[in-house]
Each structure stands twice: as C-alpha cells, then as structure tokens.
Amino acid sequence: MFIEFYEYGIYGSFAPVIALVFFPQAQGFVGLLLTYGIFAVTFLFRPLGGIVLGVLGDRLGRRTALLLSLTIITVATTLIGLLPGYAWIGVAAPILLLLFRLAQGFSAGGEVSAAVTLVGEHAPAGKRAFYVSFVQASSFLALLIGTLLGLILTRSLSEADLQSWGWRIPFLMALPLGLAGLWIRRKVAEPPVFQHMREQDEIVTSPLKEAFRTRANRRRMLMAAALPLLNSVGYYVIFNYLPTYLTKQLKFSSGEGFAITSLGLVALIITIPFAARLADRYGRRPLLVGSGIAMAVLAFPAYLIMQQGFALAFLGIVILALIFAGHTGVIHTVLMELFPAAVRTTSYSIGYNIGLAIFGGGGPLIVTALIASTGNPGIPAYYVILAAVITVGCTVFLVETHEGRAAKTPTAGQDEIAIRTPTTTPSK
What we know:
By secondary structure, the chain is mostly helical. It has helices spanning 2-13, 15-22, 29-41, 46-59, 62-82, 86-89, 92-122, 128-156, 159-166, 168-172, 174-186, 192-199, 207-211, 215-226, 229-240, 242-249, 254-282, 284-306, 310-328, 331-337, 344-360, 363-374, 379-395, 403-406. It is built from 24 helices and no strands.
C-alpha cells in the first residue's frame, strides 16, 4: 500500500503546482478544482480494479494480486513524473494525466483489500488488528514522506524551478520504491488459509458470482461500503487535502502548511498501533463508536482553532489525529473479518471501493468547491462530522467481528465471523 498512498500524498501536496503546470489558463480556484476533479474521477475506476484484482486474489492468491497492482501503480506514477506540461503539448497534457491517474485508481482498487487480507490471514490469533494496523500506519507514513518531500522541495527550490521540474522528483522516485516493493512481495508466502483452500480444492471458480450469491454476503458488502466512510473522508479531507487547505484557505505559508500536516501524521502513525491493541482486547465496535462520536463532537472546534494561528493549528490537527486513530487503526481489520475467506478479497474490494469512490475521493473537490461558493473555511469540519455520524450509525448494525468478543454475542453466528470457514460450502 506504500506506493499508492505515497502517490496520493505527493499529488495532494503538489496540487497547486500541478494546477499551474497542467491548467495554466484556468484562473484562481478553477485550476485547483480541475486538478482535484482529476483526482476524484480516478476513484470511479477503483471499483473496477477492485473486482478484477479481488477476483485474482481469491482465485490465484493474495500475493499475485499485490504484485500486479504494484506494477501498474509504479509505472503510472513514474509516467506522470515524465509527462510534459500544457505549455509543451497543450490539451494532451491534462488528458494523459487523467489516463495515468485512471490506471492508478484501477491498481489501488485491489491493493488495499489484498494487502490487508494477506497480513490479517498471516496474523496470530488475538493480534490481528495489531498486525493489520501496521499496514494502515504504513499508508500514512507514505503520506508523511510525500508531505516532507513537499516541504523540502518548496523550501529549497524557487517557484519557477518547482513548476518546471521540481514537482516531478517525488513522482519519479516511485520507480525505485516500486522495484523494491516488488522484490519484497515476491518473497512473501501466501497465507495459511489460502494454502489450505488450495490444497482442499476449495478455491471457488467465480468469486464475483459467489460474492453476490447469498443475501448475507450482499449485506456485508453494503456494510463495507458505508462503515469506513469516516476513514475515507478522514484520509482524503483531513490529511491529504490539509496542505492545500492551510495554504489556500488559511493563508499559511507552504512550509508552515507542510509542517503542520507532518506533525499531525506523526501523531497519527504513533497512535494507530495502540488503538489496534485496544481493539484486539476489547473488540472492534467500542473503538469505532468511540472515535466516531469523538470526531462528531470535536471536529468543528479543532478546525476552528486551526484558524487562530500557527501554534493552535498544531493543536487542532493533533486532536483530529488522535481521534481518527481509533477508527482508521481498526476499520480494515473489521472489513476483512466481515467476509469468508473464499470470497474475501473480491467482496472486500467491491464494498470498500464503492464507498470510497462516492465519499472519499471526491472529498477534496467537494470541499474546495463549497469553500469557493460560500467563503466558509469551516466546510471541511462539516464534511468530517457528517462522515462520523454516518459511521456511528452503521456501527450500531455491525455484528462484532473480533472472534473472542463475538463468541460471547448470541447473535453472532459462525457465518458472521469472516476468519472462520462459512457454514455453507461455496459453489465452484
């Protein structure tokens, strides 16, 4: 997941520069809206990538899906770094940028579910959330590295150099990072549960058809689309959009914006594993409910104090990071535990990516447009609060997926615990 979120990080960090390179004729907010419009449209390809790569993960193996997704996103990100701007090839520049971003969206659609499933199925009993939390923490580490690159480049290069070639450096760095990732992934074995299914000839012939076969699994996919709404909005609105929000809306310098964002990411990365340990001990639902309620109550005050100056902006983002860790450190473990192993990556990918395409990827575009039309810098807080309320509402209907806690819940049957084998044998 590192390359995927690294790319999101550098795209978000350099969005104002990208707008000038690929949409130089657009005025003011228009160029930024077009840049975030491309960012949003690519999320429409994530469900398609989720289906294709999810099916590969359930048919050929989690590692196979990960190798293919990493190859696609590495090539696409590198090509963006080599892409001439509007001044060189005219309208072909933003068109090619969109095509490469669509390839990234396709790849990312299967990356998350395959990575989380691979780690979660390897994890020892009672420590699954803790192990999976490092997958999630690595995604924010990637965003942090992208943000720090933005800070270094904006501080060391002139505006002209940044627009002509400086913005390309982080995109080109995806090539060596991707090659290293491919080497590492080739060394990782398939998880025991998938090897067992392969040995017992329990691999389903059509994971996509099987995912929709039962009403129970269709309900789970709906839950996977709605439940992580706060996670999607938190990532793309709170953190990915933050450097742009701080510089364009609150008038901080680029260096100040990157510094504030970096501190928030550090606080989040440190806190995620601790939240996951609590989830392994007390269950998933308490963390999801608690973080959702806290975010709904404190998001507006946190954004309000961000508007009061540099020092208080640090405090505001740290508050949001600590609350958000309780959700993002747990949510992907819940999503993988929702589904039976035979159709796990397919079901997980479909549900998660549909919700992400609707609510997450379009977040920066929606927020930017609303601020432009209303002049209200508190718009991101309202968006985050809405996501938190919906997530808490969905959690009410969630059956506890943690096996130790779920065993004590009378309504949690064996088929509700995804890490176990379903009570019905999948059709082949």
